[in-house]
Amino acid sequence: MARKLRIEFPNANYHLINRGNYRSDIFASKGARDAFLKTLAETCARTGWLVHAWCLMSNHYHLAVRTPDANLVAGMQWLQTTFAARFNRFRDERGHVFQGRYKAFNIEQGRALASVCHYIHLNPVRARMFPLEQAADWEGGSLRWLAHPKERPAWFDPAPALASPVQTPDTPQGRRAYLTYLATLATDEQEQKKQYFEQLAGNGWAVGSDDFKTALLQQAPQDPTSTGFAEAAGARVMTWQKTLDALRSKLSDAQCADTEKSADWKVALATEMKRRTTATNQWLTDALDMGSMFTVSRLAKECAAGKRAAKHLKALAGAPAASAPALTPAAKSKA
User: Fold this and answer.
1) How many helices (H) and strands (E) does the chain have?
2) What does the alpha-carbon distance between residue 240 and residue 244 come to, in Å, rounded to a whole number?
3) Residues 6 or more apart from 318 whose CB is under 8 A from it?
4) What letter would DSSP give residue 15?
5) Over the stretch 184-232, which tens digit does the pLDDT of each residue have?
6) pLDDT at 66
7) Omega prior to 172 cis, within 30 of 0
């Protein structure tokens, strides 16, 4: 099975998700929820993690976590294996508790992190388990801890949720204002789209701006354009586009004046892209307006064999490969 994208660095934020094996209801009982929270507390004590939001649905969990040290993988391994062992021992069972590897979305500090917290807090409401006014008292999610500060453990920090869309103080009045905001957000589909709710419900690898995602690519443990990453489609496309833009800049406007779908400059770009990246024929077809992916494949083969576009290809041969910029110290501290 392809491995999922994992990017670790100090003070990184993540949206973590996993489901019960065969979608089984592993958190249906209060005992199971309490056991998971106890294990999460021990994980935070071992790793220094801070949890900004959490939700235990019947068959899956959501966590918004900050890792002061670059230890996501080690912490998640301990959390899931320890809970699974305790869960199986309590039920006198064997086998996998979770369906597979957890999802880990890197989250940009600020608005994106707040959106993830809002999404997690609204998860049971959007699933129609109960109305929002009951969510603040539900023991299966962190909204209760946000609303009732005396119940918060030291490893829970609601500040990111309260910070956006406006800075809300962690006071009785501020917490009531946050609950009012969630009530509005729960029914505002356009605002939910702006806050990445659709993306958070599906596949992905990062939540935030394009600049944030571009900077993250440099932090990948290996080439994020490889097909070995199951959830890095967005990362691959961003890298392909960056490389294509860098190559295109090596050609003059005069060289690219021909707008025909099979223009030599397009063929040369497609050929060099296929040599440098894993860009698909379909993506190249769309990016270069070449009509058909079968045409791209045929023309690129002819070009690579020296049968066409040799002059343009020579101009591209010395162009350096594009790479994503590294996270600056300032960006790392903000993450």
Assistant:
1) 16, 5
2) 6
3) 250
4) E
5) 999 999 999 889 888 787 667 789 988 898 888 766 655 544 444 445 5
6) 97
7) no
How far are the Cα atoms of 5, 173, 228, 232, 243 from residue 220, in angstroms, in the given order?
A: 8, 42, 12, 11, 17
In terms of residues, how long is the chain?
Answer: 335
Q: Model-level pTM?
A: 0.72
Look at the alpha carbons of 176, 182, 185, 186 in this order and tell me if their dihedral is positive or negative: negative
Give buried/exposed letters for 128-151 (b at 16+ CB in 10 A, else e). eeeebeebbebebbbbbbbbeeee
Structure tokens at 335: 């993450």
All structural domains of the chain, each given as residue ranges with its CATH number in brackets, are 12-217 (3.30.70.1290), 248-317 (no CATH)
Distance, in Å, from the CA atom of 216 to the CA atom of 325, rounded to the nearest integer, reads 8
How do residues 122-162 score in pLDDT, each as one tens digit?
A: 999 998 999 988 999 999 999 999 999 999 999 999 999 99
